């Protein structure tokens, strides 16, 4: 009997333990009560508030100036995304309804601004699907630590969200056209993923940015976004028409705003924006950091005096190694890059790319162009005194004792540190055509 009671008691204890780890649905949130945020834009507006702005303190009378954050969110419309979209402006001549809405609020902190966002939306904002953080130049120059801290503390915000800086207002980017995808966040996701294959931008996640920000020997770097000019209605549609027209979502967006593109990289010193890299410098930075997957390079070859041909090569393999050294107490870094390419195009049927002489000359030009891009990136980073390559972090791991003295004035050291570039570049294949197509 006692044995049986002991067995029942043990079962009771196990059930009680289950209750501790299965607290039920006290914190549940119904999907139909949530506003799904795809992109967050951060600005620092310089305005005079007169009592009509969300987030203003009603106890402060009269016109006054104060530093605030503008918090812009792209919120999805489930009804439209689910296929039940309507038309703006009525029947045949209307414009397709966009599947999202862009809402801007202000606050003296990002957390306050988020709470003000909840005051103007009928549903609770949910950030679990947010994939983009876009900061304006003005916001980034003031320092982005509060934003990084805010997003990392949010339990429903993902560390895989992309971080970027725009030349203009972040609000303007969110109101720009999504040309192929339904939403801005989906379009930006595609651009960021493609950055590794084009080298036109530097894709960095919130996690990457935060790790660089907290590292002793590395400064953050992320993508730079530029907004292009808005398209006129006939440009958005593709042809002029005098009759009633129905536009697609992308065409409607183009008519009301511009489009955006990746345009290099934004460079930070600690948490403050200090400058930008152009696309050539960005490709060099991607190479040094081992983040370049594919890229198309155009090489020029002089077949005979005065006769130049162009050859396009796609990078099929790229590998980078940073080798730190210390000699006589002075640090130096060796950047070792190995790249292989595939011939994609030639501009002349008379260029024999399988000729040993031509192959050697193309490989030499290939190596030269890679070296120039790396040198351009290092030169710009030194000018900005921002170690976005992690040279300091590499030295810290290899020489921890020496780093204790170097870290005190590392940015000055970085601006003058000797860097040796060793590039091995080889064109391995010529695609599916072994010989140039002969001309008649």
Structure description:
With 440 residues, the protein is α/β, with parallel strands linked by helices. The protein folds into two domains: 32-56 and 64-277, no CATH class; 288-429, GMP Synthetase, Chain A, domain 3 (2-Layer Sandwich). 35% of the residues lie in helices and 29% in strands. It contains 15 helices and 16 strands. Strand 14 and strand 15 form a beta hairpin. Helix 5 (145-153) crosses helix 8 (206-214), helix 11 (279-288) packs across helix 12 (356-384) and helix 13 crosses helix 14 (400-406).
What is the compact description of this entry?
Helices cover 35% and strands 29% of the residues. The protein contains 15 helices and 16 strands. Strands 1, 2, 5, 6, 7, 8, 9, 10, 11 and 12 form a 10-stranded mixed β-sheet that branches. A 4-stranded mixed β-sheet has the order 13-14-15-16.
Total beta strands: 16
- Gap from first CA to last CA: 103 Å
Total helical elements: 15
Radius of gyration computed on alpha carbons: 28 Å
Largest sheet: 10 strands, mixed
Mean pLDDT: 80
> Could you say how many structural domains there are in total?
2
Percentage beta strand:
25-35%
Principal-axes shape call? globular
Relative helix content: 25-40%
Low-confidence parts lasting 5 or more residues at pLDDT below 50? 47-65, 84-95, 231-257
- Based on secondary structure, the structural category is alpha/beta
List keywords for this structure.
single chain, 440 residues, alpha/beta, GMP Synthetase, Chain A, domain 3, 2 domains, ten-stranded mixed sheet, four-stranded mixed sheet
